[in-house]
Amino acid sequence: MIIRKFQASDTSPIVALFYETVHSVNGRDYSQEQLDAWAPRDEEMLKLATWRDSLSRNSTYVAEIGGGMIVGFSDMTSEGHLDRLYVHKDFQRQGIATALVNTLETEARALGLAEIDTEASITARPFFERHGYRVIESQVVERRGIQLVNFKMIKSMLDNE
Length: 161
Hints:
Layout: E1 2-5, H1 11-25, H2 32-38, H3 44-57, E2 59-65, E3 69-76, E4 81-87, H4 96-110, E5 115-121, H5 125-130, E6 134-143, E7 146-156
Parallel strand pairs: 4-5
Antiparallel strand pairs: 1-2, 2-3, 3-4, 5-7, 6-7
C-alpha cells in the first residue's frame, strides 16, 4: 500500500468508494433511510464536480494498492478540519485509515496547526478515540430532512510532538 497526494483523476473512484462504503460499512449504525440521505445516489454527478474542487483545495491523500486500486482517502482543510476519511468496504481494519490519518496529522504539525477537528460518524467514533481524538459534543445533522447523529471530535497536535 502506498499513500500519495490526490490527483484530479482520482475523483471518480473516490466518489464511488464513498457511496459503497457508506452504504455497506455504516449500515450497522444507521438505517437505510439515513444512509440514503447521507449518500444519495441522485447526487453522484454533483459530487463528482464539487468534490474534485474541494479535494484539490484541501490536503488530500489516497491509499492505493498494487495495480493502482484506491482503497481509501482522507482530506483536511488548511484550518485543520479533517473532512472525509473513508476506506473501501473490503479493506477495513488493515491499517489504511490509520496511515491516512497519520499522514494528515504529520502535515498538520508541519503547518503549525494546534489541533485537528472532525465530525465522526457513530461508526468512526471508536477509531478516532483510539487515535487520541476526544468527543466535544454529540450532534444531530440533517440531510434531506433526515436526522443523523455524529460527534464533533478534536485532537491536540501540541501533545503529540
